[in-house]
Amino acid sequence: DADINILVDRVSRRSHRPLLTGRDPHAVLTELGAKRGPIYALADIHVRSDKSPHNNTVNQILKALY
Predict the structure, then answer these.
(1) Contacts of 65 (CB under 8 A, 6+ apart)
(2) Which residues are CB-contacts of 5 (< 8 A; sequence separation ≥ 6)?
(3) How much is the pTM?
(4) Pair 29, 7: CB distance under 8 Å
(5) How far, in whole angstroms, is CA 39 from its chain's centroid?
(6) CA separation for the pair 35, 59 (Å, rounded)
(7) Three-state DSSP state, 46
(8) What is the CB neighbour count within 10 angstroms for residue 56?
(9) Which residues pair with 25 in a beta bridge?
(10) Which of 33, 30, 65 is nearest to 47 (CA)?
(11) 3-state DSSP call for residue 24?
(12) Do 8 and 25 meet the contact criterion of CB atoms below 8 Å apart?
């Protein structure tokens, strides 16, 4: 799980996202979140991702798994 603004920041650094080509990333990610969110909510494990280094999120995931 990540805040929409964090996701927009991440995807804006890459140019190989076909769903975002020629579209507003914030609008696309908001739309995708609305569609996918209920499915993601069914997961047994939820880990928040933020602007911290990726290792922090990886460690949170590993902790949640064990």
Answers:
(1) 45
(2) 26
(3) 0.77
(4) yes
(5) 14
(6) 28
(7) coil
(8) 12
(9) none
(10) 65
(11) coil
(12) yes
Closest to 37 (Cα-Cα) out of 25, 46, 26: 46
Q: What is the pLDDT along the chain (66 residues), one digit of tens a residue?
A: 899 999 999 888 877 888 888 899 999 999 999 999 999 999 999 999 988 888 999 999 999 999
Cβ atoms of residues 49 and 1 within 8 Å? yes
- Residue count (the chain): 66
Structural contact between residues 28 and 36, judged by C-beta atoms closer than 8 angstroms: no
3-state SS, residue 3: coil
Query: 26 near 7, Cβ under 8 Å?
Result: no
